[in-house]
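Encode chain A's predicted structure.
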Amino acid sequence: MTQQQLEKYLWGAATQLRGTIDAGDYKQYIFPLLFFKRICDVYDEEFEKALAESDGDMEYAAFAEHHHFIVPKEAHWNEVRETTTNVGMALQEAMRAIEKANPDTLYGIFGDASWTNKNRLSDETLINLIEHYSQHKLSLSTIADDKLGNAYEYLIKEFADDSGHTAAEFYTNRTVVKLMTLIMDPQPGESVYDPTCGSGGLLLNCALHLKEEGKEYRTLKLYGQEINLLTSAIARMNMFMHGIEEFSIVRGDTLATPAFLENDELKRFNVILANPPYSIKTWDQKSFANDPYGRNLWGLPPQGCADYAFQQHIQKSLDAKNGRSISLWPHGVLFRDSEAVMRRKMIEQDMVECVIGLGPNLFYNSPMEACLLITTTNKAASRKGKILIVNAVKEVKQDKNIAFLEDKHIDKIYKTYLDFKDQEGFCKVLPIEEVLANRGSLNIAQYVSNVDNGIKKVSIDDALSNWEESSIQLKKSMNELFQILN
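Encoded structure for chain A:
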């Protein structure tokens, strides 16, 4: 199958659920079913390979075969396919058996969908879904990791488009992800962390970025935490679907219970990329005031907005020598009065390297403008005491209710970050003293305006020349008019 045919085939299963369950719930059934089919087909392929290498000796093949994941015979796709009644129960038991057989890698990966609720999914519906996915083999030789991984991400986007406001929970605009990865420039062997990883797109893109550059991507250490059970399972499946197995994605509340610790302190990472949930109100502010990990290094965020709780968690999790972070936020984090004290301390400590204002509609199902906040623990000597402010609000392509960055936009913004120089109407390098003098406001329009008011500046000589030319033309027109009237 071509990439397009594969995507159409995978999405075809979801279309069978229309009218049966809400569009926002498709993902909790389609993703586990797809992953179940993939690992069973790969398991069969690995056994066939061992059998071929042993010249058809079944006993030797059984001894020699090596599997990425163990699939118990009774839990195989083909066994479930033979079931015609209580199909949901058969699916659920098979998935749990596979998780149990692979406790270190697959525990909880199939989520907690209600497969046995026949009011939602009848036996007939499930049989149709299983038969749909049984049309093609999803083995490695048939569909490579890259191809299936791309199709899997296509499904994530389709579910995001289909499911309304829930999309933001697990999907970050892919073009923004590309820009964030370029700026962070992860290197082989480095550790990369996303404290609110959703479906894992930011982490995954770091590995794929290295792979595209021909660098050793398998030594990249990927870590993520995600509060939602289903979304964290989708993130883990996303990694496996792309052929990436060296990662740790943990389900949990990052602010309440950070998952990655070393010697009773937060683990430190070389690179952090994040698109945290913005302005959440339901968080434990009281506990954060006495945080055992010292994450309130700049102060206590207001109860009605946890943005700087996440930002301080990020900063506290950075490697002291070469830690760097990039976070996607609404513009409010740059200038809100309620966070002024914390923002000022962040700037005073010379943590902020760059602020990039992006255009509207880059958050899923939200018209607000986004910005990228880039911090580092150890700036290059030429950048110390300075902050680059980039006004790239117009560098965006609008398409109906969603926007995206074209390659030319990404290239321009990325090059601007690398150059770290003033560009009239686009970016400005500021000494931190100037920002602090403005009460620590990082409001982009305050420093860099790219508003075109239509007024073109001209010299006095040019203005006089233009006036004389206009007078000549007016005189000529008047003479022609008088001739016509006479």
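DSSP finds 17 helices and 13 strands in the chain.
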